[in-house]
Structures are given as C-alpha cells and as structure tokens.
Amino acid sequence: MKATMDKLVNLCKGRGIIYPGSEIYGGMGNTWDYGPVGVEIKNNIKRAWWKRFVQESENSYGVDAAILMNSRVWEASGHTTSFSDPKMDCKFCKTRHRADNLIEAHSKGKVNPDTMTNEEMEAYIREHHVTCPKCGKSDFTPIRTFNLMFETSRGVTEEGQNTIYLRPETAQGEFVNFLNVQRTTRAKVPFGIGQIGKAFRNEITPGNFIFRTIEFEQMEHQWFCKKGTDGEWYDYFKKAAWDFLVDLGFDPEHLRYKDHDKLAHYAKAACDIQYLFPIGWSELNGIHNRTDYDLSRHAEFSGKNMEYTDPVTGEKYVPYVIEYSIGADRLMLAALTEAYDEETLDNGETRVVMHFNPAIAAYKAAVLPLQKNLSEGARALYKKLSKSFMCTYDEAGSIGKRYRRQDEIGTPFCVTVDFDTEKDNTVTVRDRDSMEQIRISADKLEEYIAEKIKF
Ligand code: ATP
Q1: Which of 325, 326, 329 to mutate to test the pocket of ligand 1 (most atoms within 8 A of CB)?
Q2: pLDDT digit string (tens) for 260-285?
Q3: Which residues bind ATP (predicted)?
C-alpha cells in the first residue's frame, strides 16, 4: 500500500475532500470538515451501507433517533458510570495518555492491557519503565478514569438546568425504539434496526486524522433474535460485515478478524474487523453479541415491559441483540487508504489515482470539452448527466492535467467532447483505472455509467 497519513491529509486538503475544522481560527483539535468532494464520498459510503444492511435486508428497518436523549438512558446503558478510559498524565511534559495505549505501544502489541486492572497497568508501566511518547521521561501520575461523554445542560434558567449528554453511540436510539419499531412494522423476531448518525466522545487521545475524533458518525445495526439462535446470527454478521468491505473493494489481505480477549460482563462474544491503516492494524468495526442486556436494562430503568410475544406460540421473551457497528469516518479513512495509488507512467511521470469503487466515488463522470469553443455542447451534456448522477465539469487547462485532477479524486469516467461529437454525437470515455478510451454515442452514456456504478 502506498498511502501514508501525510499523503492522505495533504491530498484531502488540496482536493476538497477533508479540511481541518475551523481552520481560519487556527483550527480546533481533532475536528474535520468534509469538503465538496469528501461529502459526496462519505454520503455514498453511508448509502452503500444503508442499502446493504437496511434496504436489502428483508427484515431490517431504519430509524433516525435524537442525539439528545433522556439522561436515564445513559444510566441504564451504564455510560454514566463506566464509559471511561484509564488516563495518565506525564508529570514532566504534562501530556495526557491512555495507560492501555502506552502498554500496547511499549510491548509492540505483545501485552494485552484489556485484561489488566488499573493497578496492574500502573505496575507494568513502572516496572518496564514505559516512557512518555512526547518527552521520553518515565514519570506518570496514577491512573484516573475519565468519562468520555460530553455534557451539556438544558433549561432556560440557571436553576432549572439539567445535565444532558451528547450521545456517545447511536445504539441506544435503536434499543429505546425496539417496541415502537416492532409494533409499527409488525416485525417478527428476528429483525433488525439500523441507524446512521453522529456520536460524540471526549476522547483522551484523539488523532490520526479522521481515525479517532471527538465527533464522528456511526453506522449501527442491531439484530434482535431469540436466545439460542444468537450464535448463528453472530457468525452471520461477522461474515456480512466482512463481505460488505470486500464488495466495497477492500483487499482481504488488508483485513483481519480480532476476537476480544476481555469481554464486557454482559457480552457473550465480541470481535473487531481490523484494517491495515497507515498507522498499522486497527479496529475498523465491531460485532458484538450483547445478549438481552440492553433491552433488560431499559426495561428495568424505564419500567416498560420490553418483552416480545411470539405470535405463533405466545411465548414471551426479551430478545438477544447482535450489534454490528462501524464508524463512517473510519471507513472513509480506510477507503481513502485502500484507494490511494501512485503509478509511474510510460513518460516517467507519476500519477496519483484513487481507485475507489465507482459506487462511492464523489463524481461518477467528469465532462471535459477538448477545447473551450466546444463548451456549449459539453455543458449541455453535463446538465443532462447531472440529472442522473453527481457529475463535474472542467474546461481549465490541458486535457492531460484535467485527467490528473479527476484521477486524484477518483472520478471513474472522464467524458471528452470533441469536434466529432458535433458531427456524430459520439464522445470519448476514459476509464480511470486502465486509462483506456472508448468511443460511444452520447445517448448511450447514461446507461453505460449506470451499469458500472451499481453496488
Ligand atoms: P476504539 O477501541 O477504537 O476506541 P470502540 O471499541 O470504543 O473503538 P465502539 O464503541 O465499538 O468502538 O464503536 C464502534 C465503531 O465506531 C468503531 O469500530 C469505530 O469504527 C467507530 N468509532 C469509535 N470511536 C470513534 C472515534 N472516536 N472516532 C471515529 N470513529 C470512532
């Protein structure tokens, strides 16, 4: 793989994919704004995910729940008490670190801090003289746990204010609507609820571009099934999550499953799919068998009966949940990494090209008049194509330069309008990956592109 984080950040900034957040004010650490090209790619990623896990899943339904939820939700889910990371400060340079990350980096992944208590982590760091990545000293404060939820307050007067939270995951919006969705759709278990939305975490060590940010989007799918069938469904979603990535164009050599060594007390099984990011193998998504924990907790805290009644047998039970969760931004970073390529051309020049799956490319086609005096016909074609797909139009600079610009943002097809177009209504279509050109009738263009961008 040829992508480095620096190359990706520079390309994204220069080509309107992703800019640093609030840049004119000097930025705001670990926030990023998607530009005209980036927003299209990210929307296409979300669309592809939704199509696969909601649209094409016979018994799955979508929701779009509120970001701000009743604070009791976070008590029931356990986030107010235990959604925290083990934080340590370097006494020397005052930088803040996650103890588990320090141990993982120091042991080069050989020691798994997930199975250690805070005391064990402190002892390991002391005994192995683990050093601060910033200043190289080994002198840390004891571990303190730090809740990752962003707090805000609700109410118009100071006295009337109540603490509420920006949701740290989208999953709870699906759990609290379990009964609503089941009743209104008359869904029979097993069925699924999918959601795409923003989540917020006051991460101690955000960074690595859009890998870990404090505001991000999650794509989550909860599958409600009967106890006893949960193992089968867990395996099913492990495979479905993998297949989705491979169908998006990921090389299976760049993906691997990683079972969790330490399970949450309620979880029966959990695994991640890791991707070979420029920072090394890291979590891309998670699949968890959450048992009946979430619905049972919400039943306990809300006082509502969360049981499902089997319409045939009359049996009542609280379903088990198989959760599949993936960050849209993290998947975007993986897709950027996977697509990035530098090729040496016959003339010795290097071309940077993003080999995105055409389904997620920002623009499906770029319409380019060979010369400016052909712009009238080219613009008309651009307008026509834009009714069906996101397209772009470019008449500035040599045709070679214009091809390069499109390659860098991964536009799968460049459509060139030339003098013959005026005569016989044909255009040249250049393929991004092979750079081969074919001549086709402008009337056939829409059908040709539609076929190639299917997901
Ligand atoms: P990590 O171990 O990386 O902190 P996690 O196990 O806490 O992640 P989950 O709570 O399972 O992550 O969240 C599901 C998915 O949401 C992750 O697999 C990842 O793709 C994404 N995600 C989680 N935290 C962030 C973040 N801070 N920034 C961007 N994406 C995130």
Answers
A1: 325
A2: 988 888 899 999 999 999 999 999 99
A3: 201-203, 211-216, 283-284, 327-330
